[in-house]
């Protein structure tokens, strides 16, 4: 297994599978990628159902195999695409590709670098393939949005060669470790009812260890709890480190990483957080309260979401827009910061890439410029 590391004077986590994963960041500006050994195995993720990406995919694979002598891994459904199998000129390259199937083949221990061709959804999918340590990710903007994909494909040979040489800037995008626990009521007392005492919520505790864990995931963007098809308001209780914080009445709740703060959370009115800020964003969806605003809590706390005892209907939960399932009374969702971030390779640097994405993709602070005054006298006349 070829390993990389990120240089910034961090203390290494002994349990981490990749030595590039560290406990804390001392100097974000010094986050750099270097290789202990030259990379060998490259995973190429291509946005499916987009014929416009077939040609870039072939060009990249040919470059990696023929010019860089890399072992290239791709999904079997991508390699078996009809447009590739009919291309005789690409046949020799296609025969050298290593294929895998999501959910069947584990490639987490044999990949040195991930290259994504597509939009933000492609990077989210690549992240989901690695439920533990994640190799560095280089994302090319070939999709519809491209907030997380800073590289342009026109110069892919130069950009990929630079990454292979090392010393690239890295953004460590934190993920959420999420557990869905079923049937808590069978082994634990139900949470206390939500009542106010002198304007304050009670510090109720609940046993978060009870029940059976039915799903555990690493999430890059957000966990969304909503009311699903029901016409009733969603009514869920939010706990922080075992203490009852509030009850959410509305369309639902978004728990997001800083990376996810510019996605669904931003549309719901949350602030946008730079991915280097160690935090978790909690954003209500259409809350039935004028005073419920999004909040930011420290990374590392454990959030727990359960249906309120008096909730009229079940809730639904999804993880980065996938694996949607129903949550009933007695179930809970436990969320905390994962120790396995996604090391995203920057095109320029941590600050410039993020603000350029805000400007180009979200048109942040774009407005028509105010006309300049002809001379100083015009200004004084206006003020008088």
TrEMBL record:
<keyword id="KW-0418">Kinase</keyword>
<keyword id="KW-0520">NAD</keyword>
<dbReference type="InterPro" id="IPR017437">
    <property type="entry name" value="ATP-NAD_kinase_PpnK-typ_C"/>
</dbReference>
<dbReference type="InterPro" id="IPR002504">
    <property type="entry name" value="NADK"/>
</dbReference>
<dbReference type="Pfam" id="PF01513">
    <property type="entry name" value="NAD_kinase"/>
</dbReference>
<dbReference type="GO" id="GO:0006741">
    <property type="term" value="P:NADP+ biosynthetic process"/>
</dbReference>
<dbReference type="InterPro" id="IPR017438">
    <property type="entry name" value="ATP-NAD_kinase_N"/>
</dbReference>
<keyword id="KW-0521">NADP</keyword>
<comment type="similarity">
    <text>Belongs to the NAD kinase family.</text>
</comment>
<keyword id="KW-0808">Transferase</keyword>
<protein>
    <recommendedName>
        <fullName>NAD(+) kinase</fullName>
        <ecNumber>2.7.1.23</ecNumber>
    </recommendedName>
</protein>
<dbReference type="GO" id="GO:0019674">
    <property type="term" value="P:NAD+ metabolic process"/>
</dbReference>
<dbReference type="GO" id="GO:0003951">
    <property type="term" value="F:NAD+ kinase activity"/>
</dbReference>
<dbReference type="Pfam" id="PF20143">
    <property type="entry name" value="NAD_kinase_C"/>
</dbReference>
<dbReference type="InterPro" id="IPR016064">
    <property type="entry name" value="NAD/diacylglycerol_kinase_sf"/>
</dbReference>
């Amino acid at each position: 297994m070829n390993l990389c590391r990120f240089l910034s004077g961090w203390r290494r986590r002994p349990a981490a599978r990749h030595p590039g994963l560290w406990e804390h960041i001392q100097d974000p500006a010094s986050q750099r990628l270097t290789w202990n050994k030259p990379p060998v195995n490259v995973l190429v993720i291509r946005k499916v159902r987009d014929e416009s990406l077939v040609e870039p995919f072939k060009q990249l694979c040919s470059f990696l195999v023929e010019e860089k002598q890399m072992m290239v891994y791709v999904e079997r459904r991508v390699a078996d695409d009809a447009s590739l199998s009919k291309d005789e000129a690409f046949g020799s390259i296609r025969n050298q590709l290593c294929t895998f199937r999501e959910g069947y083949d584990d490639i987490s221990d044999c990949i040195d670098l991930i290259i994504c061709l597509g939009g933000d959804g492609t990077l989210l999918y690549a992240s989901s393939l690695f439920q533990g340590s994640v190799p560095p990710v280089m994302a090319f903007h070939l999709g519809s949005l491209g907030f997380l994909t800073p590289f342009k494909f026109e110069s892919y040979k130069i950009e990929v060669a630079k990454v292979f040489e090392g010393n690239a800037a890295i953004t460590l995008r934190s993920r959420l470790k999420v557990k869905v626990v079923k049937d808590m009521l069978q082994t634990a007392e139900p949470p206390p009812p939500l009542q106010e005492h002198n304007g304050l919520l009670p510090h109720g505790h609940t046993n978060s260890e009870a029940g059976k864990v039915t799903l555990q995931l690493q999430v890059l963007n957000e966990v969304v709890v909503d009311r699903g098809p029901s016409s009733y308001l969603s009514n869920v209780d939010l706990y922080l480190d075992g203490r009852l914080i509030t009850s959410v009445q509305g369309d639902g709740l978004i728990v997001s990483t800083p990376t996810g703060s510019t996605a669904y959370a931003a549309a719901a009115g949350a602030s946008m957080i730079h991915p280097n800020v160690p935090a978790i964003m909690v954003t209500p969806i259409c809350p039935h309260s004028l005073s419920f605003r999004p909040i930011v809590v420290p990374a590392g706390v454990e959030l727990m979401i359960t249906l309120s005892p008096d909730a009229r209907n079940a809730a639904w939960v999804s993880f980065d827009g996938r694996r949607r399932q129903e949550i009933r009374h007695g179930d809970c969702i436990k969320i905390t910061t994962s120790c396995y971030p996604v090391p995203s390779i920057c095109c320029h640097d941590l600050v410039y890439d993020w603000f350029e994405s805000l400007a180009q993709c979200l048109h942040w602070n774009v407005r028509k410029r105010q006309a300049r005054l002809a001379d100083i006298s015009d200004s004084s006349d206006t003020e008088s």
